[in-house]
From TrEMBL:
<dbReference type="Pfam" id="PF10983">
    <property type="entry name" value="DUF2793"/>
</dbReference>
<dbReference type="InterPro" id="IPR021251">
    <property type="entry name" value="DUF2793"/>
</dbReference>
<protein>
    <submittedName>
        <fullName>C1q domain protein</fullName>
    </submittedName>
</protein>
<feature type="domain" description="C1q">
    <location>
        <begin position="255"/>
        <end position="394"/>
    </location>
</feature>
<dbReference type="InterPro" id="IPR008983">
    <property type="entry name" value="Tumour_necrosis_fac-like_dom"/>
</dbReference>
<dbReference type="InterPro" id="IPR001073">
    <property type="entry name" value="C1q_dom"/>
</dbReference>
Amino acid sequence: MARAYLNKPLTGGATLTEIGKHCATGFGRAFSHRDPFMSNNLPNLNLPIIAPSQAQKHVTHNEALRILDTVTQLAVLSDTSDTPPAVSSEGERYLVPVGGQNEWAGQDGMIASHEQGAWLFYAPRPGWRIFVIDAGLLKAFDGTGWQVVGGSLLENLTGLGIGDDTASAPFTAKLNNALWTARYATDSGTGNLTQTLNKESAANDAGFILQTDFATRAVLGLLGTDKLRMSVSADGTNFLDGLVIDNTTGITDQPNLPRFSGTTNFDNFGAADSWVKIGVNALDYNDQGRFDAGTNLFTAPVDGLYQFGGHLLFKQDASNGARLNARIVRNGTTALPGSFGRNTGGHEDGATFINTLAVARLNAGDTVELQGMFSAFSGYFQADEISFWGYKIG
């Protein structure tokens, strides 16, 4: 390595010949190609070594230090300038590109270092790495030319930690806030900001995991499916879907919304002038199991706003003169506002019905039931024509 040349006299009028007079061993400032296999030069960096009984030892010693100062921790200002700058500071280094001009002519791929008013050139060896400051690139010499390592200094890394190590993940950031912002048009950007999370197949996951003290409490994304899912967990192991959006239809579902709907497969008898709780034993759905077919009660799991509805059909007993009543009741005693209804006209067996509907704010633990009553005469609420339903709406 370290073939170094001076192609012109140094500043101050000193010539190569004059400087050479101070080099007892002939190394001096490396005015010609150096043979890396010379016995008085080291094999890798071609550093000159002091010979036994050598005079002017400091010259050889300083020459080795100069080479070390140039080629260790190697960084160049640029690798695209093919012409030496008009003004250079001591120690400035460049990587000469193809087509070097003026003092850099014929030095393609060489490391040019400005020292004592002149340009010295160093030949790289395979494996040398160099950081190009203006491009932010790391390059390596493969024996023929300089190749970019990973595209840029921060590409192709095995790990990156910001305020933390990467023991738990290849990328780790320990901080109190973060900002992602689009590059504005005024900054030569588009004004847009997008982020892509890609997975290999539909059965894989692509999403966000939200944790408390590293225990997962919620996940959002394409989790084991191509449907968008939002799920929560109390223990980090068992998850409940709060929201699922079908990617083929756009239809949104809330699989664990407190809701139920059911009918009854037997006639409910109602004595005259007595409210009776309607039995509902055939459930179409009962998310979270909040309706108990044994007690015929819906129990609110949380505080919130709920909507309920019911349908009752008259079936004649001894008389068709019975008047049909219906209501929806909270905690067994209090009718929900707007839920009471009554049939006051004449009716026919199997043709007269009454519907009821109510919206109410419930507290967790409140119960709701459907009640019916016949006025004046007893009667039956007809099997398979009774329905009761409800769900949380807010």
